[in-house]
Amino acid sequence: MSDTRPIAVGDIGPGCSKRDPILVAKNVTRTYGGINAVDVEHVEIPRHKITALIGPNGAGKTTLFNLLTGFDTPQSGEWQFEGKGLAGVSAYKVARLGMVRTFQLTKVMGKLTVIENMRLGAASQPGESLWRALLPPLWRSREREITEQADVLLAKFKLDTKRSDYAASLSGGQRKLLEMARALMVRPKLVMLDEPMAGVNPALTQSLLDHIKNLKAEGMTVLFVEHDMHMVRHIADWVVVMAEGKVVAEGPPEDVMKDQAVIDAYLGAHHDVDLADSEGFEKLEAELEHDAESSVGMEPDGVVGRRIDERKEQA
Ligand SMILES: Nc1ncnc2c1ncn2[C@@H]1O[C@H](COP(=O)(O)OP(=O)(O)OP(=O)(O)O)[C@@H](O)[C@H]1O
Predict the structure, then answer these.
(1) Which residue of 63, 299, 309 sits with most ligand 1 atoms within 8 Å of its CB, as the best mutation to test the pocket?
(2) Where is the composition biased (Basic and acidic residues) (predicted)?
(3) Distance from Cα 36 to the centre of ligand 1, integer Å
(4) If exposure means fewest CB atoms within 10 Å of the residue's CB, which of 5, 94, 182, 225 is most exposed?
(5) What gap in Å lies between CA 137 and CA 190, rounded to an integer?
């Protein structure tokens, strides 16, 4: 049965408190040269929910992911995952604690087979090195267990027929699926996905969406960065909006899309467009076609945030 209790406690707005947060970050800052890439005063991610982190290009979404998961170091800040402080904790240990992430550009190992990539995902499970070093016979049985777990996941993600293929031979969408499946090898509690839909062929889009919804159904919490607003509206329970490094809005998707701060962050001068309405995207697209200077664009499939000149280069 779905949990219909309110996600937030008290007033809804940037940095608001959650009834049951799995991740709480305070005063996290990261500058590059003179740029405040991330300057997040307070943000809480609700447990057992799907939260979308949105914002225009350069808003600081990926940098925030990197900081929280130990792939980058902030100038200041603290954050707790399940009540445990993670500042200064390495990416490897963060994954072992149950907080895993995928990357905008997948990091699967092209020269390894699909099953080898999956086995590597288990390397960050608690106790792995101890088993291997101290108890070789037990380690062999552990290896069998890892392979079985990998095969179950590969079947679930419909990659079992690719088991012995090199990861390099997979399509972009299949690599995204493999990266997600591999992340699940550590049996995480929080799964952070950086642009899961980018570069995914439309035939795989529904499958990816279903997999993300399944993560929640299986008791995991999901936080994902995405430019595809149709996806955000379709699967997110909660949306956090960043612009210029800060959290500028948050709330349920239907409310956030109507929020003036979100409209300002995404649309600049195009204030008359309603992001809560799919026709609004078409209108925005039409307007931007006549606005070559705009730094915010939209793909026909609903991708907001690409620069117009980037889109022309890609075409
Ligand atoms: N390694 C880096 N060196 C210098 N500047 C960086 C670096 N990484 C990010 N930045 C800058 O920090 C800001 C935030 O970038 P970030 O990639 O986090 O944004 P984003 O919201 O994820 O954007 P996108 O949606 O395009 O992925 C940008 O101004 C970016 O140019």
Answers:
(1) 63
(2) 304-315
(3) 10
(4) 5
(5) 32
Helix (H) or strand (E) holding 38: strand 35-46
β-pairing, 221-225 vs 84-85, is unpaired
Ligand 1: lining residues by beta carbon, under 6 Å: 32, 35, 37, 55, 57-63, 305
- Closest C-alpha to ligand 1, atom 3: 32
ipTM surpassing 0.90: yes
Report if pTM > 0.90: no
Distance, CA of 106 to CA of 117 (rounded, Å):
12
**Predicted confidence (pLDDT) at residue 269 exceeds the cutoff of 50:** no
Centre a 10 Å sphere on the Cβ of residue 141 and count the other Cβ atoms it contains. 11
Q: How far is CA 31 from the centre of its chain?
A: 22
What are the structure tokens assigned to 43, written together?
């943000």
Interatomic CA distance for residues 267 and 260, integer angstroms: 10
Per-residue pLDDT band at 303 (split at 50, 70, 90):
very low
Q: What is the full DSSP assignment across 165-233? A: SBGGGS-HHHHHHHHHHHHGGG--SEEEEESTTTT--HHHHHHHHHHHHHHHHTT-EEEEE-SBHHHHH
SS3 85: strand
Backbone angles phi, psi at 23, to 5 degrees: -135, 130
Report the separation in Å between the CA atom of 58 and the middle of ligand 1, taken as the mean of its atom positions.
5
pLDDT at 189 over 90: yes
Per DSSP, helices labelled H in the chain are 61-68, 91-96, 114-121, 128-134, 136-156, 172-183, 202-217, 229-235, 253-256, 260-267, 278-289, 308-314
Atom of ligand 1 nearest to the CA of 63: 18
Query: What's the CA-to-centroid distance between 149 and ligand 1, angstroms?
Result: 36
Nearest residue by C-alpha to atom 26 in ligand 1:
57
**DSSP three-state, residue 153:** helix
Residue pointed to by tokens 């509206």: 233
CA of 265 to the centre of ligand 1 (A): 16
